[in-house]
Design goal:
The structure holds two protein chains of two kinds.
Chain A: E1 7-9, H1 13-20, E2 33-35, E3 50-54, E4 57-61, H2 63-67, H3 76-82, E5 87-90, H4 93-106, E6 114-117, E7 121-124, H5 130-133, H6 136-149, E8 152-154, E9 156-158, H7 162-170, H8 180-188, H9 199-208, H10 213-218, H11 221-228, H12 230-240, E10 257-266, H13 272-290, E11 292-303, E12 308-319, H14 322-335, E13 342-354, H15 372-383, E14 388-393, E15 403-406, H16 421-429, E16 439-450, E17 453-455, E18 461-462, E19 467-471, E20 485-493, E21 499-504, E22 509-514
Parallel strand pairs in A: 1-7, 1-9, 3-5
Antiparallel strand pairs in A: 2-8, 3-4, 6-7, 10-13, 11-12, 11-13, 14-15, 16-17, 16-22, 18-20, 19-20, 20-21, 21-22
Chain B: H1 8-14, H2 38-43, E1 54-58, H3 66-79, E2 83-87, E3 92-93, H4 95-100, E4 108-111, H5 117-127, E5 130-135, H6 143-153, E6 159-164, E7 177-184, E8 187-194, E9 204-206, H7 225-236
Parallel strand pairs in B: 1-6, 1-7, 2-4, 2-5, 5-6
Antiparallel strand pairs in B: 7-8, 8-9
Helix pairs in contact in B: 5-6
Classes of the chains: A alpha+beta, B alpha/beta.
């Protein structure tokens, strides 16, 4: 287990001033999160105790291990002595930083201003987003729940200055200080053991008898600077909100690709949905941060024999909604059979488009339900791409070639309230055009002939003159094509009142359509 | 029926779509869709196809004009910009005919649902974006599934027509409107099996547009190809 102080939330000065009604300084919200083992090292879920070690010393351990006496900083041999069954994992810095980036992408859903605070901290400036979310408490709860869902345990604080928020979070404060004086009094009781300050500073402060930051703060600054250097005193002024403290914003990457190494091999496709949720949460945050929509993405599964399966997810319209991603993912996974257990999941966004600026309705008038594109997408995910299509016309005399199936147009959100010109022309010509049946049989059905009359549930009575349809020499003999036909079509009716479209060719009578 | 004004509470109750007096038709809270056949509209509660409810159409043989019965309503929905879906149609739709009927093909979705027609139908109803759904559910679909579909349709602006065989006429169904169709004299005979209101007394005879006839029907003694051809040349001459 590895401490990952995750989030410091910092609102911008002006916004917080107006929202929280404080004085002149920027109130900062600080949240610090510790990550449990997820995302750091592969740990068998059934293993009782586990610890992450670096250079022979325990860096972090889980709850069971700490109950047995294992603690951070211990030598590995001591830890193994205390807990012989301890599962030991080497720290992997690269994966830690990847996990932090992944979490920063995810946090893009809360605020556009995210800053990394390595090795394990995130600063979120939430001052501008408070009204959108409905208050500090709501946003903090959403962030914490999100972190918990993704398997991170958090230490957090909300404060008006970034550094103050970070220190409070690292100390595990878990409090919201919207105003400067409250934060300052909370900072004043923190011990003078600040990560990042040189060890000799801590020793010297100890020697002075300064235990808490508040004690250091009341001493005259100039002489303290001479004794312990400028760095700590500047930090102190920044934390207290005396100095401005601009943060380097996290730049959301240009393209999105995210890996997760699974804690245990997964053999059932459905179980991947749970892990996939983390990836899609990060994708949704990234899309929000860059104001993009995704049209297609790929979920790449690496199996334990190093082979890969790619699962492509295409959306009927560009989307950025996590819930919709997950519904589609579940549909796809329910149809997928894994050839081998999966070790690594990778999600990459293949096609993204810019999010068009759109106004939300002032009054909530949207009809209930998810709408046509999302619904068709789900049907397609379950039934296959070819099962959900719209019709199109094709200029061909042969009836079976006059219809073609098209994918649902990508522009389907447009409102086609206007009358299509093609339809108008057809309506004008309808009077002088022979009528066509609404349904065609998949294949013309041979009809029996009795006394020269075709039979289908009784003798068919011809009700129209012959209409000769012939052509098609160009695809004669090609597989799956109608080929060259020479047919005389008739409208016919049988004694039970069924109106049919039949034809006669050189060989026999055929039933081809129904005027239903 | 007495002309005395009803007590207020009772009048309120009767304004609901699902409660009606035994001797009248229910008044629907939502506007119904005129079917395009005035005789039929008169007999349907609300004066047309009911919105947000299942309508069952029981028909055994195709080609009687059963789809033509719906075409005016479908064309109207399509012209208003609505989406239509055909779920598991038993034959292939022939695009030119649907265009001729006034439907916009870009918004006519064909779902080859296989054995999942009921599931697809439920999804299409629940999504709220479709104006009309026509479904040919598989034979084994039971009342439980239909009740789920009815629940999905309720409160939506979708019109739903389910096509089922006539043999199920005596099987109970949660659909509030059930019609059985048969070929009639010069058109279609519509028997209203169930509606919200007094039972229908006798079948309706609707005249349905049928494909154009020649002035003279071709009923010669022999309908061999040669005879038909000669008849046509005669007709042209």
């Amino acid at each position: 287990m590895l401490p990952l102080e995750a989030l410091s939330l910092r609102p911008s000065p002006s916004t917080i001033d107006s929202t929280a009604g404080t004085g002149t300084t920027a109130p900062t919200v600080g949240i610090s999160a510790t990550e449990t083992k997820a995302g750091i090292t592969t740990i068998e879920p059934t293993a009782g105790t586990s610890a992450v070690v670096s250079r022979g010393r325990v860096l972090a351990c889980d709850r069971l291990a700490s109950e047995a006496g294992v603690s951070a900083g211990q030598k590995l041999s001591t830890a193994l002595g205390l807990q012989p069954g301890l599962a030991v994992f080497e720290r992997d810095v690269l994966r830690e930083s990847a996990a932090l980036t992944h979490l920063a992408c995810w946090a893009g859903r809360f605020t556009p201003t995210v800053s990394l605070s390595p090795p394990a901290g995130l600063l979120l400036e939430i001052g501008g987003c408070l009204r959108l979310f409905g208050g500090v408490a709501v946003i903090v709860e959403a962030v914490l729940n999100g972190c918990a869902e993704q398997g991170y345990s958090t230490r957090w604080a909300v404060a008006p200055s970034p550094l103050g928020a970070r220190w409070l979070a690292q100390a595990g404060a878990g409090e919201i200080h919207a105003e400067l004086p409250a934060m300052q009094s909370a900072l004043a009781v923190l011990p003078c053991r600040i990560p990042g300050w040189p060890g000799e500073v801590e020793d010297r402060l100890n020697a002075f008898g300064l235990k808490r930051l508040g004690d250091l703060r009341v001493l005259p600054g100039a002489s303290m600077r001479r004794r312990i250097g400028n760095g700590p005193l500047d930090d102190l002024a920044r934390a207290w909100g005396d100095f401005p403290d601009p943060q380097k914003p996290f730049i959301f990457p240009d393209s999105f690709a995210c890996d997760i190494e699974l804690p245990a091999r997964i053999e059932h496709a459905e179980a991947l949905a749970f892990v996939g949720q983390r990836l899609f949460a990060a994708l949704a945050g990234w899309l929000h941060g860059r104001q993009l929509l995704v049209r297609a993405c790929t979920l790449l599964m690496t199996h334990d024999d190093a082979t890969q399966t790619a699962l492509e997810l295409r959306f009927a319209e560009p989307a950025a909604d996590e819930g919709r991603f997950l519904r589609l993912l579940r549909e796809h996974l329910s149809r997928l059979t894994l050839v081998a257990p999966v070790e690594i999941l990778r999600l990459q966004a293949d096609e993204v488009v810019n999010k068009p600026g759109a106004s939300a309705p002032l009054f909530d008038q949207a009809p209930p339900g998810e709408g046509v594109p999302a619904c068709l997408e789900r049907l397609r995910a379950r039934l296959g791409e070819a099962a959900v299509q719209v019709l199109g016309q094709q200029a061909d005399y042969r009836p079976e070639c006059a219809t073609r199936s098209l994918d649902v147009a990508p522009t389907l959100t447009r409102n086609f309230a206007h009358f299509s010109p093609l339809t108008a022309v057809v309506a004008v010509n309808a009077a002088c055009k022979p009528q066509r049946p609404l349904w065609l049989l998949p294949k013309p059905q041979v009809l029996a002939e009795r006394a020269g009359s075709p039979q289908w549930h009784g003798p068919l009575k011809l009700l129209s003159g012959a209409e000769r349809l012939e052509s098609g020499w160009w695809d004669q003999g090609e597989k799956g094509m109608a080929g060259d036909v020479r047919r005389d079509y008739f409208v016919a009716c049988n004694p039970v009142g069924q109106w049919t479209w039949i034809f006669r060719d050189a060989d026999a009578w055929y039933l081809h359509g129904l005027f239903s | 029926m007495s002309a005395a004004p009803l007590p207020l509470a009772l009048a309120e109750v009767l304004a609901r779509g699902d409660i009606w007096r035994g001797d009248t038709l229910a008044s629907l809270p939502e506007k119904a869709l005129p079917s395009g056949h005035p005789e039929l509209d008169e007999e349907l509660p609300g004066g047309g196809w009911p919105r947000g409810n299942l309508t069952e159409i029981l028909v055994d043989r195709s080609g009687l004009g059963e789809m033509t019965l719906l075409l005016p309503a479908l064309a109207r929905l399509s012209a208003e910009g609505g989406w239509l879906a055909l779920v598991a149609p038993p034959w292939l739709p022939h695009a030119p005919a649907w265009v001729e009927a006034g439907l916009v093909l870009e918004r006519l979705v064909i779902v080859k649902a296989g054995k999942q027609a009921a599931w697809c139908c439920e999804q299409l109803l629940a999504c709220g974006g479709f104006a009309g759904v026509l479904a040919w559910p598989e034979a084994g679909v039971d009342a439980k599934v239909l009740r789920r579909l009815q629940a999905a349709a309720e409160g939506r602006a979708t019109f739903t027509w389910l096509w089922r065989p006539v043999s199920l006429a005596s099987t109970p169904s949660p659909a509030p409107l059930r019609l059985a169709l048969a070929a009639g004299e010069g058109g279609l005979s519509v028997r209203i099996l169930k509606r919200r209101g007094r039972p229908a007394a006798r079948p309706l005879h609707l005249s349905i547009a049928r494909p154009g006839r020649l002035p003279r029907a071709l009923v010669g003694p022999s309908l061999s190809l040669a005879a038909a051809r000669s008849a046509v040349t005669e007709a042209i001459a």
